[in-house]
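Our preliminary data section would be incomplete without showing what the modeling component actually yields. Below, a chain of 488 amino acids is followed by its predicted structure, encoded as tokens that our downstream tools consume directly.
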Amino acid sequence: MENLSIIITFIAYLIFMLAIGAHFCKRNESLSDYLIGDRQLNKWVTSMSAQASDMSGWLLLGLPGYAYLQGLEAVWIALGLGIGTYLNWKFVALKLRRFTEAAGNAITLPDYFANRFNDHNKSLRVLSALFILVFFLIYTASGFVAGAKLFESVFGLAYHNALLIGVVVIISYTALGGFMAVSWTDFFQGIIMFFAIIAVPILGIHATGGFAASSNAWNSVSPGFMDIFSHGNSDPLKAISVISLMAWGIGYCGQPHILTRFMAIRSPEEIKPARRIAMTWVIVSLSCAVLVGLIGRIYLAEKLPDSDSEKIFMILVRQLTHPVIGGILLAAVLAAIMSTADSQLLVTSSALTEDLYRVIIRPKASQKELVWVSRGTVIGVAALACMIALKPDSSVLGLVSYAWAGFGSTFGPLVLLSLYWKRMTRNGALAGIIGGAITVLVWKHLSGGIFDLYEIVPGFLISTLCIVLFSLLQKAPDSDVDALFDAT
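Predicted structure:
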């Protein structure tokens, strides 16, 4: 009875997502329609889709799982992400929306970089597209792992069968409907995620006897479980750990799937109200996600193995709710997974189609051909990401943190300085991309001492340093580059 109710809920939800994809399928007459919705997103869809695609399955799996194991230490991640979200909306969104439209109506980040710095030999565009492919393969794989864990936990499927189901579902509506389908499905998925992440900790606190009883139980888990400055036990949290956890926030300005929403909003004047909507969603969702992990630790009689900690949200749902309600709440996990994986597939597809295929391989390709090529690359990229996700014990949070650091270091300083520093040059941009990406790729495989620092920190700093040094070593930008900067 329980599984039947959940299956019916899931099927109804998936049919709704596919219907949205089918609705927008015939409206994709050009590549701009398919990749950026011809800049027609309203403030509600922009804000909700940006945050839903940002948080992904790790909001309901990775972050609660971290809080389940480490306690209140998880607040540092939530705090860093909350601050980073606000600063991204405040200092990047409006300028990027105006600049991308002025810079040749750029519809992808590599397209914007190329137009911003007059990249005539296409090296900046191609390099950006390649690194988007590399890091989004890892990021998309994290979504597929989360989907497989969901189907594995709920329906008792073998991991690889569960993985295949999740991949096929996400590919279907993404390839069909393009950006508008992805954004509108993310809008509805964001709503589902929001109410689900609020409902579960409320039900959990009630089941454990109220907040006072929960507080007493938390204090008995371990001496440092509810101490923000302790590492889940009595060990003090080192400064390097606090910096690493908070540093998640600096990655926002380099995430292509979030920045694309800023580029697609229909009017720059809608950025401010969209920011308010987004921040309300983020503050509530992050706080409740940490609370889910804390509640799970005291609700379950026996502690879960570390490898199963990311299933705590799903376990609580199944134990605390009626099967029908549980099906709706578990659909939130599917929503969280799909809302990010679809965006990542589309952004990767856009980089390969617009910045490699159209520019290098088929400059005279028709709009219809480009739309179909983009659909094909969605499927191809999904297949590669699926191969990365084949390992059953892969950590959602681990994969996300690697890709997040990659994007934050490779593109974060580049985006910020391109919007605010007139003296920046094309060679500086190239050096920043290479310096940030290589630092992350190398740092990730080192350990001990300073190398325990989250790789986004050295990656971001080295990328910034490379941009500044190589820009100053080169002559000032041409007058037309300066004119574009002044105009925006």
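The CA atoms of residues 356 and 468 lie 27 Å apart. DSSP finds 19 helices and no strands in the chain. Preliminary results of this kind motivate Aim 1 of the renewal.
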